[in-house]
Amino acid sequence: MHSAPDLSGQGAQEAGHDIFVTAHDGLRLHACHYGPRSAPGMPVVCLPGLSRTAADFDALAPALANHAGLQRRVIAIDSRGRGRSEYDSNPENYNLAIELADVVTVLTTLGIGPAVFVGSSRGGILTMLLGVAHPAAIAGVVLHDIGPVIEPKGLVRIKSYMGKLPQPRSFEEGSEILRRLFATQFPKATTEQWLTAAHRTWQMKDDALVPTYDVRLARTLADIDIERPPPLWNEFDALAGVPMLVIRGANSDILSAATLEAMAARHPGMQSIEVPDQGHVPALEGDEIISKVVQFVAACDAAGSGKSVV
Fold this sequence. Notes:
Blueprint: E1 17-22, E2 28-34, E3 41-47, H1 60-65, E4 66-67, E5 70-78, H2 96-110, E6 115-120, H3 122-133, E7 138-144, H4 152-161, H5 171-182, H6 191-201, E8 202-205, E9 208-211, H7 233-237, E10 244-249, H8 257-266, E11 271-275, H9 287-303
Parallel strand pairs: 3-5, 3-6, 6-7, 7-10, 10-11
Antiparallel strand pairs: 1-2, 2-5, 4-5, 8-9
């Protein structure tokens, strides 16, 4: 469900290169690829949130692609209608089933074998669904401020502004719009971080700032029972056999502390990180968080097997 701004305040440490893949229905999908194709390390696949893009992994991806001299492929995918992926002429296609098929298409086209998945909000939901549909594809999971129970309060908040953001006249004005919307969840974000978030929320097109996503994505929330979103415990349990790390923002209104506790009870060995002073979703930046994710992926690498992907 993630549509809050990324507040990392960091640009790419090492630029990935762009790859375009044709989906099953002909739509063009974009992914950012880090590391050599022949890298020996287990690959990592990064899936962003509802209205977010591959840019959210600009700080994490290069750190994963080359850690302690071990190179690995890292793929950050723009879902259809987001970032540099093509917008769908039919907004009804912005649904989890088609987006999951898109992920599988990218994995197959790029020859990605079992991988560690970093799923941010909606990307984490897609990861849980992939665990049911193609369990052999997953060697480890990082669930980024998402779990099998989504808090209604957070859904109501996201629905209140999704696809309805004012059009700023400048990125500076955009940063103030985001500050007003999200300061409660991110009380310690700096001016620079809000400006970085604005650059990831809007893009310049035809001399005007427009969102980095198809605003018709808001329709994906129309059919959800906001008061009682369906739980995904069966999908979560499908990941019981793989290592898991959960990152939760202490101020999150999407993943509650109670749900995190219930997840840990059902998944022995699950690791978790709570990020203070951040909400949905905490930024994947800073030495502490990045080092923990890198170490988690390295441990998955050491335990990896030769399973085929799909």
